[in-house]
Automatic annotation (TrEMBL):
PANTHER family in UniProt: ALKANESULFONATE MONOOXYGENASE-RELATED, C2H2 FINGER DOMAIN TRANSCRIPTION FACTOR (EUROFUNG)-RELATED
Keywords annotated in UniProt: Flavoprotein, FMN, Monooxygenase, Oxidoreductase
Enzyme Commission number(s): 1.14.-.-
Protein name: NtaA/DmoA family FMN-dependent monooxygenase
Lineage: Bacteria, Bacillati, Actinomycetota, Actinomycetes, Kitasatosporales
Residue ranges of every copy of the Luciferase-like domain listed in the record: 23-393
SUPFAM superfamilies, per the entry: Bacterial luciferase-like
Xref: Pfam families: Bac_luciferase
Source organism of the structure: Streptomyces aureus
InterPro entries: Diverse_substr_monoxygenases, Luciferase-like_dom, Luciferase-like_sf, NTA_MOA
Catalytic EC class: oxidoreductase
Amino acid sequence: MSRKQIHLAAHFPGVNNTTVWSDPKAGSHVEFSSFAHFAQTAERAKFDFLFLAEGLRLREQGGEIYDLDVVGRPDTFTILTALAAVTERLGLTGTINSTFNEPYEVARQFASLDHLSDGRAAWNVVTSWDAFTGENFRRGGFLPQDERYSRAKEFLTTASELFDSWHGDEIVADRASGTFLRDAQAGAFVHQGQHFDISGQFNVPRSPQGRPVIFQAGDSDEGREFAASSADAIFSRYSTLKEGQAFYTDVKGRLARHGRTPDQLLILPAATFVLGESDAEAAELAREVRRQQVSGATAIKHLEFVWNRDLSGYDPDGPLPDIDPDLGEHTIARGRAQVRMYRDPLATAREWRERAAANKWSIRDLVIETGNRQSFVGSPATVAETIDEFVQADAADGFILVPHITPGGLDVFADTVVPLLQERGVYRTEYEGSTLRDHLGLTEPSAVEAGTRRVAS
């Protein structure tokens, strides 16, 4: 029986506190050289794609800018377009919000990126739940969860209609004679729905992939169903083998009712890693990295996500608060999506107190142990074996790697783990195709069969 091939991608960290800023090798999140180095390392290692997350507002906590995160980064489309010029095969994936954007402009941007990159564009479709982000936009406010996904589904449907609005020989160019054949209906579209009522002509011809590859990141039931119906890949936050297998089985099991097969949706968890000459050395380095990632201030801020209270008076190296979380509507961690990760703050606080007491953990110890465990820790041989085990056991189809040092943290993985995966015969030694769909083993959307001919060279 043939072994599954592993998919690997690289995430350039965005708004998070996982990067070790104190390391002298840590670089800028604004200078293009950082993005270029990261992307070119991923391409050298034959990764499927580079992934950029995006935040639409600076984060706040306690009414002040949250200075423990990246506080800003250039626009996603700008970065990805620039990276298209310094890479040849690497896929370019960007997070673009469906709650506060419009289908026409997003479709136009992704179609343009797919043309400029010769078929390497991908879109991570996300929604926003909070009024905090909405204040940056004219429409303002926010949408309840069911309406967020309703809008997202219609947004994606509408964008796909725009991508598909060019057919057959609607534009054929002959540079030698300077003649063009055009169809007056090229790009024509009409969409009437609950969220969008638009019509006109889409002005970007069909791109090499027809449509960008579609990613989805939601873990809720609505998010999983959205991915099963519409996405080409879904991110996962599950890092253990058992949890990964359960998620994999659940999401893949939803595909049939949407007329899809298991190979039409890839499951790609995010994964951190720490490598050492030996497993023992890597374990010691991982402990050091976790303490660098979680300062005392970070630990207190993280606890406030759950307690919904000002805990600045507590000692991060002391015991957990003996007061219960505030269950009110106001959240001290305004603008932090992590608040919604803890659906039962009282139960979470009770569990954390019990674990802290049993292990004699301080606040900082608890935050480190519950929130900043690296996914893969060990020698290159150990990490390669573990990644292979997860994929062959159907806990994932591959991983999106998030290094703790940017931009050079991916280099050691590329130089030591990738060759071992190649020796196992589970990872490519060369790219076999030119588009991101080729790398991911995905077929083109059916509408591509009538796609536009490219301009003659």
